[in-house]
Amino acid sequence: MDLKFSHIDILVKDLQTACDYYSKILKAEISKKFTWQRDDLHVTYAVVKMGQEKFMLVQPFSGNLKNLLDSKGEGTIYRHCYSAPDIELVYDELMDAGLQPEDENGNSLSKEKLNSPSGVRIIWLPKRFGEFSIEILEESGLEDFMTEAFEKN
Length: 153
Hints:
Shape: globular
Largest sheet: 8 strands, mixed
Low-confidence stretches: none
Distance between the termini: 37 Å
Order of helices and strands: EHEEEEHEHEEH
Oligomer: single chain
Mean pLDDT: 94
Number of strands: 8
Strand content: 25-35%
Radius of gyration: 15 Å
Structural class: alpha+beta
């Protein structure tokens, strides 16, 4: 499987406060803010970038990530994210290995429904070790998203 590490996701209680902190302390560049809402999941998030390194700050309002924030607390790193040149090939490889890819809510994901609310084609591996998850995004869509995220208004 041809995967490249992209970023981690970190839960925060107040997205703006966290963005201001990393901007001031690390001189990080902060992306535009985005909303992700599908089924029970509702979050806002932003990308923090320092050179080529980046991570996402995620403020959940409802769904499994809100429950995780309430139980584990702010600063919880809950996801490692990777990119792949061909998300459908990754999907097929996972299915061939006997693993059913999921959506962000833990529901089985069909190959025809790989699009996310952000427009990037994406899959998740089922959680096997507690609340930790692996997300795989299509490389070209992720690159386009990151470019747009840091465009000046």
